[in-house]
Design brief:
The chain is mainly alpha-helical. The protein has two domains: about 55 residues, no CATH class; about 50 residues, no CATH class. A two-stranded parallel ribbon has the order 1-2. The longest helix is centred in the middle third of the chain and has 16 residues. The chain starts with a helix and ends in a 19-residue tail after the last helix.
């Protein structure tokens, strides 16, 4: 059994959308491609043809931030922290600032809508 946050979140999505198919759009990070996670995906899709898979992973091209909408979120958050860093007296304050800007913001960068899965919230 997988003990990662990604697998846990995927399990929650899967339990709430059993009638739907899920497409995960990920970058090429090694932890996204781990053997353990691939085995977990295979267990969800076992016995199905690829065009019937319940969960499919679509990979971004390696090292291509232009494809990855998360890169825009990171850039926005990092610039926000840089702008207000002078107010921070500790790492905990920097962390709170980062969490504030990422948790209390709706991101709608144009490239997010290239991928249909971003067009609706699950």
């Amino acid at each position: 059994m997988i003990h990662s946050l990604r697998a846990h979140l995927l399990s929650i999505c899967w339990l709430n959308t059993r009638a739907c198919r899920i497409a995960l759009i990920w970058d090429g990070a090694s932890y996204h491609r781990s053997a353990e996670f691939q085995a977990y995906l295979e267990s969800l899709n076992q016995g199905l043809n690829e065009n019937e898979w319940k969960v499919t992973c679509i990979w971004f091209a390696p090292n291509d931030p232009a494809q990855n909408p998360v890169e825009d979120i990171w850039l926005y958050a990092k610039n926000f922290v840089r702008e207000f860093y002078h107010l921070c007296k500790s790492f905990a304050a920097v962390k709170r600032l980062f969490e504030f800007v990422t948790h209390h913001q709706i991101f709608n960068f144009p490239k997010m809508f290239i991928y249909d899965s971003f067009s609706r919230i699950i």
